[in-house]
Amino acid sequence: MSSPLAVSGKADNPLLILQAFSKTLTGKFALQVACNPEDQLKGPVADLIESVGRHLGLHVETVTEVQDREISGRPDLGVVIAGLVAGYVELKAPGKGADPKKFRGSDKEQWAKFRDLPNLLYSDGNEWALYRNGERFGKLLRMSGDVTGDGEAAVTQTDGEAVQELLREFFGWEPLVPSSPAALAEMLAPLCRLLRSDVEEALKNPGSNLAALAVDWRHYLFPDADDRQFADAYAQTFTYALLLARFSGETCVTPREASRAIRRGHRLLADTLKILGDEAALAEIAVPVNLLERVISAVDGEALEKKAKGDPWLYFYEDFLAAYDPAMRKDRGVYYTPLEVVQAQVRLVAELLEERFDAEASFADPKVVTLDPACGTGTYLLAALRHALEKISGTKGPGMKVSAASAAAANMHGFELLVGPYAVAHLRLTERILAEGGTVPEDGAHVYLTDTLESPFSPPPHYPALYIPLGEEYRRAQKVKATTPVLVCIGNPPYDRQVIEGNMPGSAKRKGGWVRFGDAGEDGGGILRDFVAPLEPLGLGIHAKNLYNDYVYFWRWALWKVFETKEGPGVISFITASSYLRGPGFAAMRQVMRKTFDELWIIDWRGTTWGRARPGTSSPSRPRWRSPSACAIRSRGRKRRRSSGTPAWKGPATGSSRGLPRWNVSRTFPGGFVPRAGPSRSIQLRIHPI
């Protein structure tokens, strides 16, 4: 059946098309029938869009929203040109206008979500406006009369030409090809956020396919994940899996093809995407899914890698999360550790390994097992690998790098809770090992999507066939936690002191996991009690609240993992908040450390501002450590030699480091990359008497 706007040659003239549109609407609104005003607009607006498209020589199709809007949260119309998603149209009841600044109530809430769409047309029939990522593109158009009551007289030739030009711009949208990793992160963040929002909406219907997937996700993967956490995991998994497929050379970036493309190097993500890419579930979130497919298909991975002038993934996830969800970034502690700091920390530990542990090849030595328990995008593991291979190349020749890369790959492990950085870390480590000529372990790079702080002893559930690969990944991570002997634990774990106020939702989950609650799930039942229990007899119990911080949980976990699951030597090197060095609430924590380590070295930055600009930018490396922070290197040798609480050695950061194994901070932080002291504080490298 032909469109009512495309008869008698009317499709050849934008004014005639608009007049027919206005006449149709006037007839509809003249009927005394109770119905939704927005629904009255759908058919005529769809015909108008398709007719103008034909006039412009385009094959334009519209797809009308048919699901319950309260569940789907989709715009009223989707517009497809030559089989590709071009944009969306949201209709408002006549009189509401097309300016979101004037919206109230549910319309305002809806705009808060739809503003992430890259090409969105708003109209109430009389007003028309185009929005891209929340900003109006061009002018707001208003018809000369009222299309719901004035018929053909409501529009003029000028109106017809203006609507045609607006639709021409709307039809011409193409995904912007990002020129840098930062631009890519900013482009993907709003679409990933939109996907998360749609998943959350779908979960409100217990009978939805996504709700069924969420039940399985909690049962087989993350039992403590609430709806928002599942929606976030879904959105980031989907986005990053498609992105990895594109960087792998895949041109047809759909869930099915992406799963196939990344399976060899990223099996967990491939299997997870296969589950999350259930067709019935995707149909419930079609808008962001279709947009992500189209936008990611436009990404030129090779060009980005060339323009990045180095590792394109180094800053990517921090930039992504800053645009996607700044609150989550803060809560999870996702901040870029300046590369110079990472490299310095790695060099200091490497010297310990070589001089105190007879590991000539440092991190590539077969007896050195390294773990970053909050690995983020893998920067520490990559720095350790690079340092070891450079050392071997210089001492034994470049030909030895191949076997060393393979040995390091087998003995390097990383845990990461968030899907985004996990995907990036897995990619970066795999690529680096292969680039050095090494062999990735048969079970893939040893980066695991897991919660470090959950119980290492929780038995896995029975997995149905579809979930068996994910069950294998779960068991691998549990094995590393429970039984794999780790010599070096290194990294920059998150810092966040959780404060749950009385007015917060009752569902607010207390952090700490197994470290705080133990296998029985009771507060105080975990290994953190060794930091807490001794405070009360000392009259310091009131200060115990300061221990409930992510970084403290990771310190306690690392002590357990490196020294309490096995006998013998070990090294822990963390950058964390430095409050544990001085505060009374950390007295027992310091006591446990004194009993555990033979030697303790602290590079203490007392709230200094420092950093070097990123390559190609004028902004300092992040974070600027305005709050007190410290880099700790702590070791225990094969033969215990208990630390006696040596008084702090104080000196300028460029001085020689007496008491350390030939360490010199000016060499450790090359190019003068050292903390700058505030006006009343000196920078101190110290053997700290904790």
Tell me the layout of helices and strands.
Blueprint: H1 14-30, H2 37-55, E1 60-64, H3 69-72, E2 77-81, E3 84-91, H4 105-114, E4 120-123, E5 127-132, E6 135-142, H5 157-171, H6 181-203, H7 209-220, H8 227-247, H9 255-262, H10 267-276, H11 279-283, H12 286-297, H13 301-307, H14 316-324, H15 326-332, H16 339-356, E7 370-372, H17 379-396, H18 401-411, E8 412-416, H19 419-435, E9 447-449, H20 468-482, E10 488-491, H21 513-517, H22 529-532, H23 550-564, E11 570-577, H24 587-596, E12 599-605, E13 629-636, H25 665-668, E14 684-686
Parallel strand pairs: 3-4, 7-8, 7-10, 8-9, 10-11
Antiparallel strand pairs: 1-2, 2-3, 4-5, 5-6, 11-13, 12-13, 12-14
Question: What would the keywords be for this entry?
Answer:
single chain; 690 residues; alpha/beta; 8-stranded mixed β-sheet; 6-stranded mixed β-sheet; 25 helices; 14 strands; 11% strand; elongated; disordered N terminus; disordered C terminus
Radius of gyration: 29 Å
Question: Low-confidence parts, pLDDT < 50 over ≥5 residues?
Answer: 1-11, 66-72, 501-508, 608-626, 641-690
Instruction: Name the shape in a single word.
Output: elongated
- The first-to-last residue Cα distance is 83 Å
Strand content: 5-15%
Structural class: alpha/beta
What is the mean predicted local confidence, pLDDT?
A: 81
- In order across it, which strands form the biggest sheet? 9-8-7-10-11-13-12-14
Count of extended strands: 14
Number of helices, counting only DSSP H or I runs of 4 residues or more: 25
Outline the biggest β-sheet.
Answer: 8 strands, mixed
The percentage helix is: 40-55%
